[in-house]
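Aggregate trends can hide what the representation actually does to any particular protein. This step matters because it turns folding into a mapping between discrete strings. For completeness, the protein is quoted in full, as a sequence line and a line of structure tokens:
=====
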Amino acid sequence: MIYIVHGENLSKSRALILNQQKKLMVRYKQEFSIEDTTPSDLTSKIRSTDIFGEPQFFVVNISGAGRTNLEEYISVINQTPAYTTLVILSEKKLTASNIFIKNAAAMKAQVLENEATVQGTSFDFVDAVMRKDRINSYKLMHRELNRDKDPFELFALLMYGLRSMAQVKFESPSSSGMNPYVRSKQKTLVGKYTEEGVKNMFKAFYELDLKTKTGEINPEVMLTLAVEKVLNSK
């Protein structure tokens, strides 16, 4: 059997390959990169037999193929014996124009695409802060900073979240033009804040921004103080 496993979620691809190996009760698999293997080498491998009579299980990683001429490899793969399992692995998503995808039907290969795991966005951080969820606020703030997000960018997004909530809180005419989903989400937040509390947050954000730009505090301290101001607001 021939499999083409591709996509951004490499760990999921690896798990799928391991699961297939277990299903076939194959103790050993051989993995090699296509750039280090000639068509002749590949022919020898897939036509070989195990000395103990076990089925052969090969993984060919094509991630580094680059501009390699792959036509000969396709011809070899087409001759894979029925008792051999051959997995063509790509650590990236293959497009419809990729030679392996185009020849999948001819090779009778099963194509399995793994999508990247969604890891969330910076708006998750903003939502956690505006909900006054202290634990997730700091967890997500550190996640974004570890992704090299600029503290000024996160501060600006937090200001956007505050402004959106205030528009609904004060029933601003501009709130009627909001995306219905955004407006609905803000309505669930307004009860957590008093009008005076919202005004105080705007004042505090302005002062933090000014102190950072004049060098009185550093950007990460600014961001932390802004988060605390929202979490502790009335």
In short: The chain has two domains: 2-114, 122-232. The chain has eleven helices and five strands.
